[in-house]
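Chapter review: from sequence to fold.
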Amino acid sequence: MSDQIITRMRNWITNCGLTEGARLPAERSLCADLGVNRTELRKALLVLEAEGHVTRHVGRGTFLAKVSKSGKSGRIDSTISALSESTSPIDAMNARLVVEPQIAQLAAMHATPKHLQDLRRLTTQMRDASTWARYEELDGEFHEVIADAAGNTLLQAVHKIINRVRLVVVWRKIDTTASGPRADYHSFAEHDAILDALERRNGSDACAAMRAHLDSTLTAMTTPHGT
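The token string follows.
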């Protein structure tokens, strides 16, 4: 996906006349207005969500983000935007490798039954994803639930910044014109292993499973035609 599509979408948001918190038009209408296909639109929305311009709610739609009166949200969004320009996809994955295994270890101790239920639902939905954009949305939610389950608000905030930067830099470059992940996509079994460790309340196994998952993803990113 080219940066021109992202710029076109940003310009549309600036000039569309919608107020903060307003719901965006249906995807079909946006595709026609912007001259893009649905895959390009969904990738652009993922990037804009990561940058803090829109919020997306499964089953409800996409909405213009509300600007915090304190101005803190705007500063964070500016920081993420700046980091996205100076961070490579490999650097983003290496940052995840530093933070997320420890988050998973904490989550094994603090996850509630609701957290585990949500993670189980997401592993099922990811297998049913028919597009890469849908898969990425569910995958991001999976990792965010684990960060929330860790019970450490500072680590959760650090994870959110890393994840949003990662979404921007990776989805600007990745080719998602093909259909969604195959039935044997490596992340499915890796997510299952993480969830299994969390359900067993085994912190060391959860840490190791998360590290193995991120190592596998990094290898896939750096190996030609890797999966």
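Two observations follow directly from the output. DSSP finds ten helices and two strands in the chain. The mean pLDDT is 84.
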